[in-house]
Write a structure and sequence with these properties.
The structure holds 2 protein chains of 2 kinds. By secondary structure, chain A is mostly helical. Chain A has a single domain, classed as Orthogonal Bundle (MetI-like fold), CATH 1.10.3720.10. In chain A, about 80% of the residues lie in helices and about 0% in strands. In chain A, α3 runs antiparallel to α8 (about 170-200), α4 (about 95-110) packs across α6 (about 130-155) and α6 crosses α8 (about 170-200). The mean pLDDT of chain A is about 85. Chain B is mainly α. Chain B folds into 2 domains: about 1-80, no CATH class; about 90-319, MetI-like fold. Helices cover about 75% and strands about 0% of the residues of chain B. Chain B has 14 helices and no strands. Chain B has helices at about 1-10, 20-50, 70-80, 85-95, 95-130, 130-145, 150-160, 165-175, 185-210, 215-220, 225-255, 260-265, 270-280, 285-319. The chains are: A mainly alpha, B mainly alpha. Chains A and B meet through α1, α3, α4, α5 and α6 of A and α1, α2, α5, α6 and α7 of B. Chain A: Belongs to the binding-protein-dependent transport system permease family. CysTW subfamily. Chain A: Keywords: Cell membrane, Membrane, Transmembrane, Transmembrane helix, Transport.
């Protein structure tokens, strides 16, 4: 039965994906519009991309955003992986309920609340707002996403591999770096990328926790969008979409290849 | 925290010859993220709660200082006496806040319903697709989630505006003569939320439908059960955990949504995320903003606990 799609199935897929992709496709198309009027097609042109590169404010904001995203994604990946290990490997420790609550709650917590509460913390401890505080804020909410991604991989992980390594005399540290880490690496990589794009994308939390001189790209885009739709913003958005899409697809292909390679290796090892 | 350590020691005895180093290392795995979340997630809520009880003041930061350690114990008592529920009474007094909470919950609920309506058939079709196609479809659902939220909301402005692409298209086809006013209405917000959160609905639904044994349906049909009632009696109940998780993943963040009502809803729309933002950035009344946040949190606590329970149960199943 599985494997055959009825007409209704096909219609709902086509409709659903059209709904998901049409707006993005239109946005990309209209970023190449020669006309300043955003919804009137005036011929193909790349003039908005050219004018982007002379917009120093946008370039500065992009650079700030990029640095925050790289740093916060990296820290969040380390912390999130640790949290995932803690949740899967240690099923009983006091405060585990609170801990798992703190890992899952940020996933659905409205951003305005997270932003406000972090800002009030920074004010309370007298931390000057700027790139640093935005980075701390981004680490906090994106580490939870990393934890969930890595955790799902750890749950399907065959613990007997680790036991075998330890029986053969490997220390726990060695076992972790040579057995566990390579297996959960795809999840860690996608966790990092998720954290990176979440940081790249965040408007609300950054607006609360940012200070003078640390305007991020979403904040810049937002303030321009409020004034109206412009082809220049369409061009920025298209570049961002292209950047993220290429990154995600590359990672997916690399992961797939590595999985296949490992399967082949395991197969070969079994036949020995 | 010290007790946390003892417990894990029992769960994972250090190996011989490893001793203290490995003991400490295994504790670190729990302790570091635990402390981070305590400091940057839990304590901030305590601060929000505290400030929601203090008076606003014209200064920087714009609230009357509470806990002044230098004043000693008596100073602390004075401070405690100054705390008041005035901000909460203020929220009760002004119908604006009540209406904003109400309409946020309503808008989120309607959007969740439509997300389920669109997401369910998608997830169902994905689960029944040939397995070679399934990975591609899954990727296609996840991909928009990676592209910027702000951009995806922004893209709808160009479509929904009075002179936007949708109206141009409808007029060109001849369905309407005058442009529809969709921008700055609730409809625009529904579209924005459903669009932005659809992947959150589809993914958990797909996960639970994919695990389902479709031969159950065949069996039911062989026994003479019509397809529609087979769906309601077998497929739907089995997919309920996924549907619940999906609905919560859409509903909870949608209640506090700021970007979508702000960009698509115009100035007329009342949603609590926007109210909080304005209270904070425009009125600079931090104590009232904090009180708004605390009440919002109270509204969401029950669905959030459902969410955590669902997560924990899903984990147990996978174990």
């Amino acid at each position: 039965m599985q494997g055959k799609l009825s007409r209704f199935n096909i219609v709902s897929l086509v409709f659903g994906f059209a709904f998901l992709y049409l707006p993005i496709v239109l946005l990309v198309i209209y970023s190449f519009n020669a006309s300043r009027l955003v919804t009137v097609w005036g011929g193909f042109s790349t003039r908005w991309y050219v004018s982007l590169f002379s917009n120093q404010q946008l370039i500065d904001a992009a650079w700030v955003t990029f640095r925050i995203a790289v740093i916060s994604a990296t820290v969040a990946t380390v912390l999130g992986t640790m949290a995932a290990l803690a949740l899967t490997r240690y099923t009983r420790f006091r405060g585990r309920f609170l801990f798992s609550g703190m890992v899952f709650a940020p996933l659905v917590m409205p951003e305005v609340i997270t932003g406000l509460s972090l800002l009030l913390l920074f004010v309370a401890i007298g931390l000057d707002r700027g790139m640093f505080t935005v980075t701390l804020a981004h680490v906090t909410f994106s580490m939870c996403f990393v934890a969930v991604v890595v955790q799902s991989r750890l749950l399907s992980f065959d613990r007997s591999l680790e036991e075998a390594a330890m029986d053969l005399g490997a220390t726990p540290t060695r076992t972790f770096f040579h057995v566990t880490l390579p297996v959960i690496m795809p999840a860690i990589v996608s966790g990092w990328m998720l954290a990176f794009t979440l940081s790249l994308d965040d408007l609300v939390i950054a607006s609360f926790t940012s200070g003078p001189g640390a305007t991020t790209l979403p904040m810049r885009i937002y303030s321009q969008v409020r004034l109206g739709v412009t082809p220049e913003i369409n061009a920025v958005c298209t570049l961002l979409i292209a950047f993220v899409t290429v990154g995600v697809l590359t990672a997916a292909i690399v992961n797939k290849r590595r999985d296949l390679q490992r399967q082949r290796d395991e197969h070969a090892a079994l036949r020995g | 925290m010290a007790q946390t350590l003892d417990q894990t020691a029992a769960a994972q005895p250090p190996r011989e010859g490893e001793g203290l180093a490995s003991f400490i290392r295994s504790r670190m795995v729990i302790l570091v993220p635990y402390l981070w979340l305590l400091v940057f997630f839990l304590i901030p809520f305590a601060i929000v709660f505290k400030i929601s009880l203090s008076q606003s003041a014209i200064s920087m930061p714009p609230y009357a200082p509470t806990f002044d350690v230098s004043a000693g114990f008596s100073g602390l008592l004075d401070n405690l006496r100054e705390l008041s529920f005035d901000n909460y009474l203020w929220l009760l007094d002004d119908a604006l806040y009540f209406n904003a909470y109400l309409s946020s919950v309503w808008i989120a609920a309607v959007s969740t319903f439509f997300a389920l309506l669109i997401g369910y058939p998608m997830a169902y079709a994905m689960a029944r697709a040939p397995s070679s196609l399934r990975m591609v479809l899954l990727m296609l659902v996840i991909l928009p989630f990676w592209t910027s939220f702000l951009i995806r909301v922004y893209a709808w402005i160009g479509i929904l505006k009075p002179e936007g692409l949708l109206n141009q298209f409808l007029i060109w086809v001849g369905i309407i003569d005058t442009p529809l006013q969709i921008m700055n209405t609730h409809t625009a917000i529904y579209i924005g939320i459903v669009y932005s959160y659809l992947p959150f609905m589809v993914l958990p639904l797909y996960a639970s439908l994919e695990k389902m044994d479709f031969s159950l349906i065949e069996a039911a049909q062989d026994l003479g059960c019509p397809p529609i009632s087979a769906f309601w009696k077998i497929t739907f109940p089995l997919s309920l955990p996924g549907a619940l998780a999906g609905c919560l993943l859409v509903f909870i963040p949608a209640v506090g949504e700021f970007v979508i009502p702000d960009l698509l809803g115009g100035s007329q729309t009342l949603m609590i995320g926007k109210t909080l933002w304005n209270e904070f950035f425009a009125n600079r009344d931090w104590p009232v903003a904090s009180a708004v946040a605390i009440v919002l949190l109270l509204i969401l606590v029950v669905p959030m606990m459902f969410f955590q329970r669902a997560q924990a149960r899903a984990q147990e199943q996978e174990r």
